[in-house]
Amino acid sequence: MYKPRQKIRTFALSGPCLPTSSDGSPLLELSGISGEEQLSQIYQYVLQVRTASAAELTTAAPSPE
């Protein structure tokens, strides 16, 4: 099985309510996509996202006061 050395991203989630780390990178990553499309029809996709790994979350969490 081919495993790239780094994540290749061709999809990005953005919006004012989506969580980001202190450096601005997203804390959600795409884990699945499903949907249907047909010619001359309305299409719909369902995106499944998950939080980043625990290591990324601990570095992004604000320090307690």
Structure characteristics:
single chain, 65 residues, alpha+beta, two-stranded antiparallel sheet, 1 helix, 2 strands, extended
What does this structure look like?
- With 65 residues, this protein is an alpha+beta fold.
- The chain has one domain.
- 11% of the residues lie in helices and 26% in strands.
- The chain has one helix and two strands.
- It has one helix spanning 54-60; strands at 28-36, 44-51.
- Strands 1-2 form a two-stranded antiparallel ribbon.
- A hairpin with a 7-residue loop joins strand 1 and strand 2 (44-51).
Helical fraction: 10-25%
Oligomer: single chain
Pattern of helices and strands: EEH
**Which residues sit in consecutive blocks of at least 5 with pLDDT less than 50?**
none
Distance N terminus to C terminus?
Answer: 46 Å
Task: Briefly summarize what is shown.
By secondary structure, this protein is α+β, with helices and mostly antiparallel strands. It has one helix spanning 54-60; strands spanning 28-36, 44-51.
Provide the fold topology:
Blueprint: E1 28-36, E2 44-51, H1 54-60
Antiparallel strand pairs: 1-2
